[in-house]
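Reopening this ticket.

The earlier resolution said the output was attached, but the attachment link was broken on my side. Pasting everything inline this time so it's all in one place.
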Amino acid sequence: MSGSPVHDIYDELHNRIRNQVFHAKEGRAPFLPQDLSRRSQVLEAKQRYSRLYLALASSVFGASFPTGGTTLATAAKRVMAEAANGASIGFTSDPTPATATDSTLSPSGEPTVMLPARKYADPRGSDYEAVIAEARVDDLIHQVPSVGRIATIMPSGEIGMYESLEGRFGLEGFDQCQFVFSHQIAGYDIRRSKYAS
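Inline output:
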């Protein structure tokens, strides 16, 4: 242990587990799929970091994940559905690349437009939670003539999900503008079917 929790977590997850699974090379003691001792090492780390994640989610966001019939995916769906109530989708012409530290829709201070969002039934199925906002381009183009960044804005004013096009997509020539944010909640059954070895 180095005495730095961040360094120790990075070292274990990235260097000693991830790289040995995904970047296995000769001479590096790779983790092979059917090596039971290595599988148990990965499982133990996964369970430990799952507990850490849940503890952080509880402490930072006040999220609770009851045991019993409620799974993490079910609880996450409920939290996201509740967050969508009263949310807006905002956009700006600002093409500034998105970073993990973004706290404003337009870092360069360009004008923004907020549109009321509503729940949207993602055609891919119930594993997806989505919100949509739409408006006539004629009502928008004089305020913001192009799309550079978009984000969901929570009722508290905080940015939820966001994306930068890293360029400007002009609205001229279109009648209707629609923004959809959708995400998949990957519970145990989905992970098991996608990532089983």
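Reporter confirms the inline version is readable. The helical segments are 5-22, 36-61, 72-84, 188-195. The longest helix spans residues 36-61.
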